[in-house]
Amino acid sequence: VQLVESGGGSVQTGGSLRLSCAFSGFTQSSYCMGWFRQGPGKGREGVGAIGRDGTDTYPDPVKGRFTIAQDNAANTVYLRMNNLNPDDTAMYYCAAGRSAGAQCMSAAGMTYWGQGTQVTVS
Fold this sequence. Notes:
Elements: E1 2-6, E2 9-11, E3 17-24, E4 32-38, E5 44-50, E6 56-57, E7 66-71, E8 76-81, E9 90-97, E10 112-113, E11 117-121
Parallel strand pairs: 2-11
Antiparallel strand pairs: 1-3, 3-8, 4-5, 4-9, 5-6, 7-8, 9-10, 9-11
């Protein structure tokens, strides 16, 4: 199993980024896919997830700004982030797990993780 994130970088406040997560080694239809972040001195928090049924969910701090999309043919999940602010600065990770619903937004509910990609907003 492998998950590889890309697309991070440095942007100014109000800018946008699209992160990609290319995965292999498991059947995506059996897993939910989530995006998480961990800022300096903070715990890992979920910023969006897409369930096995294709339903996406987001926590309030990013709702309306972040969007998850998946390309099943390319085995890739994306996280589009708009209107970024310095509070969004963090290492961003994608993850996969056999969880459902709210557990897809919990790090404890995920099994496989990527190595992360850094997002810095100034």
